[in-house]
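Ticket #4471: structure output looks truncated?

Reporter: J.K.
Steps to reproduce: submitted the chain below (189 residues) through the standard prediction queue, then opened the result file.
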Amino acid sequence: MIASPDKHYMSPAEYLEWELQQDLKYEYVNGEAYAMTGGTIPHNAIAINLIAALRNQVRGSACRVLASDAKVSITEQGPFFYPDVLVTCDERDRRAIQFVQFPCLIVEVLSQTTEAYDRGAKFSQYRRLESLREYVLISSDQISVEVFRLNERGKWELTPYAINDTIQFTSIDFKFSIDLLYEEVELLP
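Returned output as attached by the reporter:
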């Protein structure tokens, strides 16, 4: 995410209307729109590998897998974000047109420019979603996945995964090899 050079503050309604007219996607936080830039080929390949696996897992269920063009709203008034991948199993999101409000799983594929934000301020906002059960950070530089999972005490716990591990997403009852994420992905040495 990069700051828009135009520091024009707008209401959530103005943002939603304005963004429909834009060629780029923009996240919205505290009255400001931030342009979403493109990622690397490894970033994209990892997201596609995960989407394909998730789609097969939820096929025939009440859940939907959505990609980076699907916006998440923390509240009706924002902020609004574009995660790389999300899963929603909530009936209320089935009718969503502009944004999803009840995801159970959100995934961000990390890049050097967004990693600190994805780990910090963005995760802080995502934690406000009552429906969210898992937040996943996937490295695009090395084989590494971190799953933050809401436990029964309402606390977020980290489970890291590395080479040869089996990843588990409890929110949708899904286990898979970490190798699936990095299939045909060229990581730089």
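Triage note (M.O.): checked the attachment and the full token line is present. The first strand starts at residue 2 and ends at 3.
Status: closed, working as intended.
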